[in-house]
Design a protein that fits this description.
It is built from 10 helices and 12 strands. It has a single domain, classed as Alpha-Beta Complex (Sulfite Oxidase, Chain A, domain 2). It is globular, with a radius of gyration of 20 Å. With 328 residues, the protein is an alpha+beta fold. Bound molecules: ligand MTE and molybdenum atom. Molybdenum atom binds next to loops.
Amino acid sequence: MTIIRVPKSWEIPEQQVTSESAYFNRRRFLKTLIGASLGASILPIVGCEPSSESQQALAATLDTTSLKPIKTNPAFSEVDRPITDQQLAGQYNNFYEFGGDKSIWSNAQALPTEDWKVEVTGLVKNPRTYDLDELKKKFPLEERVYRFRCVEAWSMVLPWIGFPMKSLVADVEPTAQAKFVQFTSYYNPKITQGPGLHFGPLPWPYTEGLRLEEMANELAFFAVGIYGNTLPKQHGAPIRAVLPWKYGFKGAKSIVKIEFMEAQPATFWNTLDSHEYGFEANVNPNKPHPRWSQATEKFISKGPNLSWEKIKTLPYNGYGEYVGSLYV
Ligand SMILES: Nc1nc2c(c(=O)[nH]1)N[C@H]1C(S)=C(S)[C@@H](COP(=O)(O)O)O[C@H]1N2
Ligand SMILES: [Mo]
């Protein structure tokens, strides 16, 4: 007999199977269908509260090293919406190297983050490999509260800790030929299991990219922390990209390599489906995704239990004054 797994009520449901996740969670989708028809009658109703065991397990993954005291950049100390609850943000993740459903937070604990190194290479005057402590010492850390908008029309507000990408750009000095940058995420098929079900090969490792002027913009940020602590693994420890005017998939997690290039680099989602995931991927309420509108988003507003609030999506996710001039 097949074991039907009905999501516990405290688990955050997939709001819909849209294409970013559709590549991966067909099996889950099928299970959900079966669950919907059979589950209610044959399985006990699960209580409304998370089991204290999983709640504790989640809390333990969020209990990383404190980075306090940390100064908040006054230009980014708040937005027009409240900061998302830490426990919600720490369990509602996308990190497809660790699966396609919402147990990623747990699976991602297998990521080995000790002795992390980031190789900076390509068209730069000073190519070099930084270890993480060096990066943190060299570039003063600050906190920034940013809106975060996934291409699948949900959003949060997150308090990142890190440093502007432009500081690293200045340190390595791209040459005149450098026009683009590519970020590569950690990938080891022995550790990152990857999603179980997919029709074809996936273009691992996860890569993303920017134009050099985008990277040098004030907003572009490398995060090494969140909520006052070092990054939990599920958020892309120990260093990930945060680009608040772009859809969330542009923010590569667990970066091991940064390469400066002349031509536009290949990226994970763009390689899978260039029609649905453009390279630029700026948040734009007037440009629908081929299969859904981007005019509104579901803001994950309260915690620790999930509650969605439907709000209007802002051009450039509300950051037009910083980045609008890059796109005229
Ligand atoms: N390496 C890697 N980076 C990734 C992803 C991924 O699957 N792998 N998912 C992206 C997507 S689709 C989103 S919405 C954000 C989610 O970040 P969060 O889980 O910290 O909220 O990470 C982005 N970075
Ligand atoms: Mo996303």
